[in-house]
Amino acid sequence: MESKRTKSDLSGNGGFNKFKSMELPRLVVVGNDALEKTGATCDKLKLGGKTLIVCDSTTKKIAGERVAELMEKKNKSVDIIEISGASQDTVDSVVEMGEGYDFLFGVGGGVPIDVAKYSSFLLDIPFISVPTAASHDGIASGRASIDRDGNKVSVNAQTPLALIADTGIIANSPPRLLASGCADIIANATAVKDWILAKKLRNEPYSHYAANQSEMTAYSLIENADSIKPGLEESAWVVVKALVSSSVAMSIAGSSRPASGSEHKFSHSLDRLVDKPALHGEQCGVGTIIMMYLHGGDWKQIKTALQDVGAPTTARGLDQDEEDIVEALVRAPEIRPERYTILGNKRMDRTAAESAARETGVI
Length: 363
What we know:
alpha/beta; Dehydroquinate synthase-like, alpha domain; 6-stranded parallel β-sheet
C-alpha cells in the first residue's frame, strides 16, 4: 500500500532548505581585436555614466589608454588611475577616488584586475575585466589576492560583469605569463583531489559539477599542453577559455576550492619566505608536481605538461634556493589551516618534505 504524502511532500518542500547564489560574468568577449568591442559591450550591458580605469604604467600603454579612447567615443566620462601593487592601501586609494563613479575597468595582469575587482566590491559598483595577459585564473573569478601587512590574503571580490580578452594582446605578452596561466589551470588537478579528501574526511560541502568542470579544464590542458605555443593567438584563445572555465567553476562552488588546494598553500608559503617570489602560477605548478606525488597520482604527467607549456618544474626554474622550497613545504599547512588538504593541518615533517621534493626532481 502506498503511504500518504503530505501537502508539504507534494509541494516538494518537505525538509529541503538548500539555497545558493552564484555570480557569473554576463558577457565574455574573447578573440582577435576583442578590445575594439569595449564600447559595444558597455552599450549591451547598459553601462553609462562615469568610469574609472585601473591599470599600471605598462598596461596603461598596452590597453588602458585605448579603452579610455573607446569609451570617450561613446561620450562616456573616463578617468585613469595608475597603481603599482595590490596592497590594501592601494585598494583604499582606488575606493576613495572611485566614489561617484558608475563602474570600473581592471586593465592588466593580476594586480590591476585584483585591485579593480576588490575596489568595485567595496564600492558596490560593476567592474569589467580586461586582461592583457593570461597569467592566472583570477581574470573572471570573484576572489582577489590582496597584500596586507606583508602577507597575501584571498578576499571576496566582485565577479566581473564582463570579460574582454583580446587574444592579439595576450599572445604578444611575455611567454612566461602565458605559461604561468597554464600552470595555474593544471594546478586544478590536485586542488580537486584535496577537495574530495576534505569531503571524505571532514564532510566539507562539495559540488560535483564544479569539481568536474575544474578537473575537466585541467586535464584538457594537460593532454594538449604540447600544442600551446608562445606568440600564437590560437594558444592564447585556448588558455583564456580554460581560465574562464576555471573561474566559473569557482563561482559555481561559491569558493576557490575547485582551483586552490595544497599546491596554492605551497605557493603562498613560498611567498612569505622569499624576497622575490616567482609568478603565482609558476609556483602553483611546481607545487602541483609535489602534491600529485603525495596523492599517489601521476606526477610525471603533470611535470611533462608543465615542461611542454614552458613553465618551471624545479627550484632552479623558480629561481629559488632548494632550502626555501623544503621550508615552504614544511610550513604550507599553516596557510589557511581551515582548508583541509593532503598536507593536513600540522607542519609537514622536514625529512618527508625533502624526500618528496627530491623524488619528484623539484630539488
